[in-house]
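cache lookup: miss for this entity combination. No prior model stored, computing from scratch. Input as submitted by user K.M.:
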Amino acid sequence: MPEQAQILPGTLDLLILKAVSLGPLHGYGVLLRIGQISGQALLIEQGALYPALFRLVRQGLLTASWGTSENNRKAKFYELTATGRKRLREETEGWNRLATAIASALATRAEEV
Amino acid sequence: MNLGAWVRSVSAKFLHGETAAAEIDAELREHLALRADDLERSGMSRADAERTARIEFGGVERFRDDSYEALGGNSLDTLLQDARFSLRVLRKSPGFVVAAVVTLALAIGANAVVFGILNALVLRPLPVPNPKTLWAVENFDSYPNYIDLRDRNRSFESLAAWKMVFTAMDTGNDPESVWAYAASGNYFDVLGLKPSLGRLFHPSDERGANSAPYVVLIWSYWHSRFHEDPGVLGRTVLLGKQPFTIIGVAPRGFGGTLIFGSPQFIIPIVNQEQVDGDDLLHARGNVQGIFEMLGHLKPGVTQAQAAADLNGINAYLEKTYPKEVPSHDYTPHHPGLYVFGTPAKAFLAGLMLLAGLILLAACANLGSLFAARAADRGREVALRLALGSSRRRIVRQLLTEAALVSLAGGAVGLATSILLLKRLSVWQPFPSAPIQIPVTPDAKVYLAAIALALISGVLFGIVPVRQIMHSNPYEVVKTSATGRATRRLTLRDVLLTLQIAICGVLVTASLVAVRGLVRSLHSHYGFEPRNAMIVDVDLSGGGYKGDRALEMQKRLVLAMQATPGIQAAGMATSYPPLIYAAATQTHIFREDAQDFRTENAAAAPFRYDVSPGYLAAAQTALLAGRDLSWHDDAAAPRVVIVNQTLARKLFGSAAGAVGRSLKLQDGSRVEIVGVVEDGKYFSVTEDQESAVFLPYLQSPARATDLVVRSNRDPQQEIRAIRSTARQLDAGLPVSVDSYNSFLGVALFPGRVATVALGIMGLMGGVLSITGIFGMAAYSVSRRLRELGIRMALGAQRREVLEAALGRAVKLLGIGSAAGLALGILASRVLASIVYQATPRDPFVLGGVVLIMTFLGLIATWIPAQRALAIDPLVLLREE
């Protein structure tokens, strides 16, 4: 398994939104999907997942409904709302800007200062 | 946070109730099941898979907590959960709960009562529109002066005035004594009132003297005397035997502009001669014409500007009418409490401070109790922390416990205070005067009590928080939670010392007050109130006017003097000294004075117009010269009797004053024929003032107060007086009461102060006892083992006691000393209200030390007994 990075606080919400944007998921599914899309490089604390999901529901970015999972178990499925989709777009842009800025700062060589 | 979503989730919580919590659990179960399925598929056994899934997940408790919080609508849920849990915990220690609730109820009740009084007397505005811009000036003034002030001032929208009248109302059934306002025509217009029945009178009704014989009833009188009969409109009643017509009823809830007493009706002031008997409308020099003037300030005008305006007009009037208009210093204030406003406010503020101190002491008491309990529950807290509960959650639960106790205490305290306030508002402190203190509680009092309860709850609830936040759960679980006696000063020690200091302050203050009251009862008044009756005769109510009144007064005095059993009788045509704080001052000038402006006066003595025999009746000793006689009448040369202070001031000695002369402000010369002893005239706490006694025949007035002295049984004396009066005229309204009961009014503030401070001192004492007892008992119970060992090793009783209680006693000492010192400083404030309050009185100092020692003894008695009764063998065996 490649090196696992600790997830920065605040980015969990972003990852959840992204995971759910690819299709409605239940909580465990979100966990798996995040691992999948990050190539297993991100470590998510399981206990922190659900509070984040509930928070996003409360903020109106996700909606939840009960349904049946693949193994015929009852599960609660989450999907993005319109607001959630918009928030995802905004946050992604913001994150990319931030990442670019930090990367360029870190790439500075001594002569360039 | 998205408000809409939050509201949605909260309402979902309410609508779906428990299902949300159940849902979370279900979701968690499903998650773990799915994970277990995956693990199983990768080769584990089901049991191992499930176990691994759970371990991977982490702390389930915390997950639940965090999920609840994330859901939003859960704060209520957690609160209820906390509350239920706290109730369960509290039920297990009923003694503690009862002690805590009672302590807090006492403290909050005291605060609620004081605040209720403050609210009713000081904070509640008069029931008129726009009370904030309504100002009054309270000097006695004459009616013509008022007219000038009304017409010339530029500060008030309009100025109204009123005076009190005491008369008899006859509706045809039976006459009864009433008191009313005689108010200027614009009175109701200035106040902005509308009638609840019929109409009110207006300036247009005033067409000259005695032109408006109308009566406007006050609502409560209409209710009690006329039973809200609308047929009273147009009815004629007799006031002082003159016909008046009832034209309307004032709005409900309006009872004049004095808070502590409402008149029964209001008549136009232009008709005052009919009820007063004297024409005050044209007497510029008679300052009894107006009691109070009031009006709304024009927008933009300040109180200071209005004062300057009125003073300026008065200065002009002084110059124009130098003999009749005395100087005034107008200081506008909000109407309601009259001259008692400032001292009442000061006293109530002081009481609020003391009540606040009591609450603080109670909180300190409860804080140490709670801290002790928290220390006891150290194990339980440690376990909960180890199992994953957040410290914040535990603190929240402890605070909920504290809040429950404080709300219970607050509710009990509030209920008691409401009862007390209701009783207080129907109490008439002086049966002979229609004075009441309307302190019925309203919403502000309830809110204040609840707020205080919550604040106290927070105050003593946070005491154990520091302990919790810093406790290391593993340490506590490993060792048993025993407290060792440390030399360091703990928070509990500080709290206890604070409590005791506060109690010390309260005890000192109340002892000072008691001492002052005892002194005041024995001080020298310049007359002897024992065995003396004051007989108030309403001559105008009996229809006597002019010369007939003069003649009747003389007949009354002579008849009283001749009645068997009566030793002496005399009359004053104003209130005798110290009654109702109603003394009049006058200005006198040297015998060679030509300029009678007030600033040239030689002295400003209190003035009494009396009959011959008055001095003997009041037992005011004559030091030189002679008493007045019936020959000193209007035809004879004018004479006066002065008191020793005035004689010394002007002529050097009492004997030197006899035969000399003075001039009154109207220019007339009076010869001093006698000098009497000094005394108190206006208030019990005044500095020594000068006084003059003029023969009433030379300055007649209608008010009649007889002073009658007799050694007989008071009931017999009253009967004899009444029968003598009846023999002279059966229809003459006469009221008799002992001089001492009238003095009750003068001594009232001091007595109230003493009672209030005494109660506070008592409460402080009770709180201290519980505080010391709590600490001593706790310290003994914590250190039973150690004490047992000491005893087993041969410690004497004294040493054991010292070990067990030494700390508590030391704190008692320090706290008492601090409290005593503070109390002495604070007593300076008291000295303004409580007569002769000298804090450095050895009685007070000794008393405080004695009381605090006594309290300490009571409080430590039981723990001491327990400490001494330790059987070391029994103790060491159980561990």
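stored under new cache key. Chain A has one domain: 5-106.
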